[in-house]
Amino acid sequence: MTTSFRDIWVYLAASPLLALTLTLMAYQLGAFLYRRAGMNPLLNPVLIAVLILVAILILTGTSYESYFEGAQFVHFLLGPATVALAIPLYRQLHQLRRSGGAIFVSLILGSLTAAASAIGIAFALGGDRLTLVSIAPKSVTAPVAMGISEQLGGLPSLTAVLVILTGILGAALGPPLLNLLRIKDMRARGLAIGTASHGIGTARALQVSEVAGAFAGLAMGLNALATALLLPILWKLVFAG
User: Fold this and answer.
1) Could you list the residue range(s) of the whole structural domain that residue 42 is in?
2) How far is CA 69 from CA 50, 78, 120, 164, 194, in A?
3) Looking at residue 71, what is its pLDDT?
4) Of 13, 64, 175, 212, whose Cβ has the fewest other Cβ atoms within 10 Å?
5) Torsion on CA atoms 200, 61, 6, 32, rounded to nearest 10
6) How far is 77 from 82, CA to CA, in rounded Å?
7) Nearest-angstrom CA–CA distance, 16 and 74
8) 37, 63, 82 - which closes a domain
9) What is the pTM of this model?
10) What are the Cα distances from residue 115, in Å, to 24, 71, 88, 185, 192?
11) 113 and 61, same structural domain?
12) pLDDT of 177-199, one tens digit each?
């Protein structure tokens, strides 16, 4: 009796370890291609892993809910990984203290610019109100961005997708853009990438420099706080009624 690939997949999918194994293998393949390409930022390992996993889910007809049941352990590890960013932050505490004023101003302006530019571009391209409010917090880490979006009447699921795309694009294109602008100070580079592209950008900054990673981690956390406080107020002021 012939067994089809779909039958085999249905059998394997019953194991919660399948999704976890596929996730780890997809990322390892992405990391391998990234290294072989000389760490070309366009071949970001997260981007490669996402494309591989999406292709697998589509080809096998597997729902995201079924996939997440097995891969949720990776999601759980996001918490400890975020907390671990405090280590390089502590090591660079002396530099953070010297740059306190510049960091504060940069974060406020960066937070406002990230939201305003996203809304402006979406509006110019004909986006409706739902799209505008969903894209506004796209530079904030996913859990906070989804909460802000839901509070303002947006679609948290759409916001989550936009957050991931923002992080991948920021990690891939941020360093080349900063090189083009001749910004060599690792503090400024880390602050810019962390503000614009949250966790994925911070991971990329850590690969380049511990100083850049520390400032990116600080920017990611404070930008989430600044956006959560400022965006609802600005949204009501600008779009009230």
Assistant:
1) 5-82
2) 17, 16, 37, 20, 30
3) 75
4) 64
5) -20
6) 9
7) 12
8) 82
9) 0.74
10) 33, 31, 28, 25, 14
11) no
12) 888 989 888 888 988 998 988 88
